[in-house]
Amino acid sequence: MHTTTETSIEREIAIAASPETVWEFLVDSEKSTRWMGLNARLDPRPGGEYHVEVCPGQTAGGEFVQLDPPHRLVWTWGWDEGSTSEVPLGSTTIEVTLVPQGEGTLLHFTHSGLPSADDLKSHTHGWEHYLERLTVAAGGEDPGPDPWAER
Amino acid sequence: MEAALKAMAAPHRRRILTLVRDDELTAGAIAAHFDVTRPAVSQHLNVLKEAGLLSERRNGTRRLYRARPQGLEELRSFLEEFWDDRLEALKTEAENEERTKRAHDD
Questions:
Q1: Which domain holds residue B19?
Q2: Least confident of A99-113, A125-139, B14-28, B83-97
């Protein structure tokens, strides 16, 4: 039996805007593309679609899991079939919590379900998963200057 | 880092890395899994090696290949940077929006 030691990416960032404002940027299709992706189709309700073309031909998808506006948002994250990757949609989880801080917000971000490099030695699915995911992170066939950073 | 990203972009090379995840294999054994020519496989192995994703070991006259997880760790850092950049962009946009809103309220 394999024991899976998943790793996650965690970040905390202070934003000089109210949780309500930040929330809009997480769930509104138009506003979300101002900070990530070329276009987005977001249906912010449990089970609703999360679909973002992150860079040309590379589309992230998943579904909203938990919404507690403007405090906590959970959605799944993976890559579309048309992308370089063959990772099933919604194979990792992103959780964002918003805590009021003065007139601003403390945003806590967690992207979990990423296998660790150690884990790759023994975990077949994790390995392929990871390869695919990282490939897409690279921006596809021609990484060149990071297309994701150009928005 | 760019070499690693380019190396990972080709499906054949991702399959090669999967093959040598647990087992050290010779170029011949790797080539047996593909319909492409042996020189093409050698070329893929070179690209992966130069990108730090593959290690090569000599055993007598044979050369054995194995995946190098450290190379992937470096790519993981890349993914982390991706989120750092995106969150920074989120911060900028939300703060601009907030300023606009407050200006209207005044």
A1: 2-105
A2: A125-139
* pTM for this entry: 0.63
Distance to chain B for A47, nearest Cα, Å: 24
Q: How far is CA A34 from CA A81, A90, B17, B93, in A?
A: 24, 22, 36, 7
Over the stretch B29-62, which tens digit does the pLDDT of each residue have? 999 999 988 999 999 999 999 888 899 999 999 9
Number of domains chain B is built from: 1
Q: Is A149 inside any structural domain?
A: no
pLDDT tens figures, A124-141: 444 454 455 444 444 333
Closest CA to B7 of A54, A134, A56: A134
| Residue B58 belongs to domain with CATH number | 1.10.10.10
- Structural domain span for residue A15: 9-140
ipTM above 0.90, yes or no: no
Which candidate in A87, A135, A142, A148 is best for mutational testing of the B interface (most B CBs within 10 A)? A135
Instruction: Verify whether the Cβ–Cβ distance A117 to B70 is below 8 Å.
Output: yes
Q: Is residue A3 part of a domain?
A: no
